[in-house]
Amino acid sequence: MRDKALRVLYGLLIAATLVYVALPSFVVVITAFSDKALLMFPPSGFSLKWFERAITYEDFRKGLANGLIVTAWASGIALVCGTLAAFAIERFEFSGKRVLESVLLSPLVIPHFTLGVAMLILASEFNIARTFSLVVVCHVILVLPFVMRAVYVSLKNIDPALERAAASLGASPLTVFLRIDLPLLAPGLAGGWLFAAILSFNEFTATLFVTGQRTQTLPVAMYTYVREYADPTMAALSSMLIAATVLFLVAANRWLGLERILSIEHAR
Amino acid sequence: MTPDRRPAYFAWFILPALFLAVALVASLASLLQFGFREHIPGSLKVGGFTLENFGRMSDWVYLRVFIDSLLLSGCTAIANLLLGYPLAYALVRSRSSLLKSTILITTIVPMFTGDIVRTYSWLVVLGKNGFINGGLKSIGAIDTPFELLYTPLGVTIALVQYSLPIMVIILAAAISHIDVAFEKAAASLGASPLEVLWNVTLPLSMPGILSGTVTIFAWTLSAFATPQLVGGGKVNMISNMVYQLGFSNFDFPFAAVLSMVALALVFLVLYFMGLGLRRLERVGLH
Questions:
Q1: Measured between alpha carbons, how far is B135 from B110 in angstroms, rounded to an integer?
Q2: I need a surface site. Which of B69, B197, B235, B245 has the fewest CB within 10 A?
Q3: Which of residues 34-93 of A touch B (CB under 8 A)?
Q4: Which CATH number characterizes residue A68's domain?
């Protein structure tokens, strides 16, 4: 009897926590269909006008375009640099290896605002303008650890006998890397790249410091909007982003397995 | 796995990453250097070398922000443990795969929607006419709205939701390493479910509890978007002070000092976590 009461209590606790975590997303979606310009709950009528405004608002369009440019470059560069570096660190001996590895992985624990201020000061010291390159370098540094972790995990799963077999049959080390390791690493790399892309697209704190009017990404444009306006346009845009995220996760789960992507996250 | 001898093309493998590492170290070095420079009011240029910026740290205004940040991070970490442990336990031990995937998906989605969407959502929930106040008013439960936005409580509520996914993932990994046989043995010897939890499962998940709580503490110390929007200038953490100093006062030297102290705090906290984990290992709990 007492056990049963405990079980019910436990179930209620779990349900309440899940509601707490999911509630804001649902509330935002409901608010997005409101017909009033003021944030009000419950909404008094139904309208799609905030979606129209969110899609046509110039700063959001530019922010999305900028964000996609930054994300494409940052995740691509991080994928190449991270894969090569992680492979070299895992497979070769060289002096300063541990130092290089700690520096490359340190952005996992460095506060993003610290890195943002640091990059901004570095740029101003060398008279570098706040261009896309600065934003991209900043993002690459931030997402590189996730690519490297993905490569480490995948490399551990490769049987070294395969590499030795190829080498004994006369393949050069470069051929072994390109023809044996790279294809075997591919699924892990896809997961790492995806994770890096999502992080870069959503990164806000460091980005706020290193972007200017011309280079602002979508999260920065959204932040500026929240500070200036209180209408549900942001709720409409947020709903679209939440929907896109859910679809994206479902697709990623289908093709790559959510577990794989999470094993990277778990390492954090 | 014996490392190969370095092939000729080896340099091409690490050069790009080396460039990034140098950029990162250079930026932190210039941050340090800026902390020792004189701030010229109204100008982005900095003056000569000075120690004054470090002296300003003892100003009550800034000490207060540090104390508030530590308190908010501490409360967030403890709330995370209390909410996250039951959730992680259900995620690992539940026999229903539907419940498992519900917990996993519900916890993970907010992690992937990004800071701004997540924080904005809390503005809609906590605001004067938001979900909580508007809802309670429309059923006639209250007349005057609760002050949730721009209060420490509101910021904590939003911060806990922000970090819960990571807590659950860390705790779930720790709990999944515990052999169910221990729990079954205790139960078969007559221990009640609560006794099993208290005497067997909790002590055995100590490494996860420690690393989860400390990780969340450090992670919350670095939070920016949540205190910036939900705190609205009334609840300030270190990050908000840094932003304000930099972009309202153009006092980048002092902003640099505060950023460095925040970085040092995070490293210190993680260092003590490492010590604690090693001690647990020695008692044989790892």
A1: 23
A2: B197
A3: 38-42, 77, 80-82, 84-85, 87-89, 91-93
A4: 1.10.3720.10
